[in-house]
Specification:
With 265 residues, the protein is mostly helical. The protein has two domains: 37 residues, no CATH class; 205 residues, MetI-like (MetI-like fold, Orthogonal Bundle). The chain has 14 helices and no strands. Helix 11 runs antiparallel to helix 14 and helix 13 runs antiparallel to helix 14.
Length: 265
């Protein structure tokens, strides 16, 4: 008996068993339950009524489209602000850059609800109205570090000899950036976009706090249906969101592979 136990733990595959169990219980099982509930009617049988309800119900569809728009705006603003910040961090002294990166990451150590409540207090102190503007500001504030860090990480690992070679060949600083730096930083850009877009489209707490629950995002709609006991419809909405995120991930993988294969332009 003892020998069998010793042999079991001596195999490398045995040490992966806890991770397999964790994935099965906390990843695979919830996804299976979402799919089962999504394709069930109130009578427990197979039904597409939940998806038909989403298509025919204007409120849910409009909320979904609006959430995608907010996510796109937030992602674009984070990219416009994050890329120059990441590029500047790679051009300064490493010690200073490390300190600044830590300052960007430091707010992430605080719970997102606490940060959002602090944003609400800031708007109240400045006598600014809570609404769509506050929502976008709060989204950018919460997710901007997720855009900066992957871009900075990619730029930092870039081979400096490529830039030196382009300069030796007579490329101007603008040409160096457009033909060397930017194409090679595409994987970081794609990672940053995914890390901002995906949580933004599914969040609900930030929207509720920064708009006083006057503006609903798709995550809020899912939460309300689950809380009201409409598990089947809520699961269908969750599955729709997962499909959109999965399609976006496939596009991002294709873009990253293209960037890695394409090299310089």
């Amino acid at each position: 008996m003892l020998d069998n136990i010793t042999k079991f733990f001596s195999r490398r595959r045995s040490w992966s068993l806890p991770y397999v169990l964790f994935l099965a219980v906390f990843v695979v099982m919830p996804l299976v339950l979402i799919m089962v509930y999504a394709f069930q009617g109130n009578d427990g049988g197979f039904s597409l009524e939940n998806f038909r309800r989403f298509v025919t119900q204007a409120e849910a569809a409009n909320t979904f489209i609006y959430s995608i728009g907010i996510a796109l705006i937030t992602t674009i603003i984070c990219l416009v602000l994050g890329y120059p910040a990441a590029y500047i961090l790679t051009r300064i002294r490493p010690s200073t850059a490390t300190l600044l990166v830590m300052l960007f990451i430091l707010p992430m150590w605080i719970n997102v609800l606490v940060r959002t409540l602090a944003t609400v207090a800031l708007f109240d102190f400045l006598s600014l109205p809570l609404g769509e503007g506050a929502l976008i500001f709060g989204m950018v504030y919460n997710f901007l570090p997720f855009m900066i860090y992957p871009i900075y990480n990619t730029l930092q690992k870039m081979d400096p000899s490529l830039i030196e070679a382009a300069e030796d060949l007579g490329a101007t600083p603008r040409q160096v950036f457009l033909r060397v730096v930017f194409p090679l930083s595409t994987p970081g850009i794609v990672s940053g976009i995914m890390m901002v877009f995906m949580p933004t489209i599914s969040t609900f707490a930030i929207a509720e706090l920064l708009t006083m629950n006057n503006i609903k995002l798709f995550g809020t709609t899912i939460q309300e249906n689950i809380n009201n006991g409409m598990w089947h419809y809520g699961a269908a909405l969750s599955l729709i969101m997962l499909i959109i995120i999965g399609i976006t991930s496939l596009f991002s993988d294709s873009s990253e592979d293209g960037a890695n294969d394409g090299g310089l332009i």
